[in-house]
Amino acid sequence: MLSGVNRNRLLLLAGAVGAAALVVVVLILIGAGSDSKSENTVSTASAAAPPKKPFLAGVPQHGATLGAADAPATLTVYEDPQCPFCRDWALGTLPSVVRDYVRPGRLKLVYQGVQIIGPNSQAGLRAIYAAGRQNKLWNVADALYRRQGAENSGWITGPVISEAAASAGANGAAIRAAAPTAGVTAQLIAAARQASVDRVQGTPTFILQRPPSLPQQLNVTALDPATFESALAAALQ
Amino acid sequence: MTLRRAIAVAALAGIAVAAYLTVVHYTHTSPICTTGGCEKVQHSSYAKLAGVPVALLGLVAYIAVFCTTLVRGVGAALVGVVLALSGAAFSAYLLWAQLARIDAICQWCLANDAIIAIVAVLCVARLLREP
């Protein structure tokens, strides 16, 4: 087949294969580098320099609910602790939402944890729901996001959960004891069922409810604080 | 149909797929999906490279491959081969990521894998036969 092909062309092709291989190696290294860089940044931020004034401090929590029970609107947030977009929202935008909407009593948030990324999410979700027994669910969810690793790399381990619980001011031993219980399992099943009702296809997904209106999915075009709060403000009008 | 035209047609198909996924990314909408894993893949850390959506990189690459078909000669064919082989190899890496790391399959990614494989074969053939 190649007998009629100019030898120079074959050399060019070999060079092209080598160049392509080099390009792909560089691309993969860039991807791996940006991943580890973001993970290190997040990990360092949580372990070495906890926020001077935690954004959740003083905000009422009860189980999976964050904010005043009598807030006029409820934003249900579907999350997976392994989801990188959820982490972006939780660490980048949630503090602004808490400051502008939850703390003033205009909105309460309800956490719905669903396994979207993979089986390792279950361990994180169980720890998060178990932390809800101590009214520390949102703190532990935040602490886990600060330690988030690559999807399905098995980063949600016992030690990571213990470390997250400790940094969140929760009782790690109680979380480990409650995580495998039937009560937490029931919460996971209920969240999965509600996700089906709300037609959740990915995370994060936001469902806004302001009685007497029916719950509706919050349409957000981006997860940064300005865009998200703009969409939230429009939906609350 | 000449090889250049065949590459141009395949590249246009790739542009369509990559453009759709780029729009989905920037509008935060859900891709049309029958495999059930598209959103999971699109929301994974593998969907971005140094903050740039992989779909956007693919779109730029397909446009570049298309542009090489507008020019005759070995130089253009060589650039097309490097782009196409790079795209095919990187698509193979992303396919591995879907199977081994993300545990989900995106039909749009599979469509792209088929298109970039065809483009790569055609580009190699063009390089070997270009007058």
What can you tell me about this protein's structure?
The complex is a heterodimer of chains A (237) and B (131). Chain A has 237 residues and is an alpha+beta fold. Chain A has two domains: 1-45; 57-236, Glutaredoxin (3-Layer(aba) Sandwich), CATH 3.40.30.10. Helices cover 53% and strands 10% of the residues of chain A. Chain A is built from nine helices and six strands. Chain A has a six-stranded mixed sheet. The radius of gyration of chain A is 22 Å and the shape is globular. The termini of chain A are far apart. Residues 37-49 of chain A have low confidence and may be disordered. Chain B contains five helices and two strands, in the order H-H-E-E-H-H-H. In chain B, 74% of the residues lie in helices and 3% in strands. Classes of the chains: A alpha+beta (237), B mainly alpha (131). The A-B interface holds A 2, 5, 9-10, 12-13, 16-17, 19-21, 23-24, 27-28, 30-31, 33-35, 83-85, 116-118, 150-153, 201-203, 220-223 and B 26-28, 30, 39-40, 42-46, 48-51, 74, 78, 81-82, 85-86, 88-90, 93, 101-103, 124, 127-128.
